[in-house]
Predict the structure.
Amino acid sequence: MSDNENTPIIEVKNLKQYFNINVGLFRSKPLKAVDDVSFSIKKGETLGLVGESGCGKTTVGRTLLHLYKPTSGSVFYKGKEIKTKSDIAEFRKKATMVFQDPYSSLNPRMTVSDIIGEPLDIHKVYKNSKERHDRILELMGQVGLNSEHASRYAHEFSGGQRQRIGIARSLALNPDFVVCDEPVSALDVSIQAQVINMFDELQAKMGLTYLFIAHDILVVRHISDRIAVMYLGKMVELADSKEIYEHSLHPYTKSLMSAVPQPDPKIARANKRIVLSGDIPSPLNAPSGCPFRTRCAYAQECCAESMPELKEVSSGHFVACHRVNEIG
C-alpha cells in the first residue's frame, strides 16, 4: 500500500443512526436503525454485511457515505476522519454506491450515456466532449455493454443490463471504495452469477474495496473475504468468511447458517435446522440488553441487563454474546 500498510481504507467507529418517528400528538421516539456499529475494511478487501430485512445494513452503507448524516460516531477514509462538507465532497470522489433496485435507481428521462456521464459532469473531470464520450464508452466496455447502447434509455434494457449501467456509473470517477447495496437481489438467479463474477473481475482489475450488503448468505460467501452479521441495528459477529461458515459462534449466526441449502443430500439430511421462535422485535421497541435475547434459546437474566460487547474470542473472530464461551 502506498499509505501506511496497517491503515484500513475505511474505518467506522461507534456509528449510530437514529430516526425520530412520530408516535402520537407532539411525541416522537428514536428508531435505532444503526446502534453503535464499528468495523474496518482493508484495501482490496470485500466485507460482506448480512442480516434479515430491517436489521439496518443498508442504513450502515448510506450513513457511511454520508447520504444520511450520522447521529453520532466517526467514519475514517485512509486514516482521515470525514467531518466537513469539503471532506465529504472529496470522499465521494473516491467512494460510491451501487443501489439495490436497477429499475428505480436510473433516471428514465436520461440516456445511458447521460446516466453514466452524470458523475463526470458533476465533478467536471473532463476537458472536452470527446474526452467525456470516450470515458463513457470505456466504462460501458468494462461492464459488458456495447457502444450502441449509449443513446438508448434505461427502460429498453433488462434488469441485469440496467444494473450494469448503474455499476458503470459508480465507476466513473475511478473510486477506491464501493458500497454494493444488495446489487443482485432484484435480478434473476441466472443473471446474479454473471453480475457477481463481474464484481470480482472489476475488483481484481481496478483494486476496488467493497462493502457488500446482502441478505442471501450464499451470495455473500462467494464474494466476501470477511463477513459481518447484523441483528436489529447491532453487529453480533464478525470473522473471516470461511470461519463464519465453519465455526459460527453467535446463536443468530448459527441459525442463519443452518438455513443454507446443502447440495449433498446426505449432508442436507444430517443438517439440523435451527428454527427461531417469534418475530423480529420492532426497532422502535427493541428489547433491553441483547436485542436477540427474545428469540434466543440460551438467553438468561444477564442478557436482559446489558448489551454484550463485540469482543475478539479468537484471532480476527469477534462475537457479541454473554454466553459465547458456554455455547460455542
In short: The two ends are 36 Å apart (CA to CA).
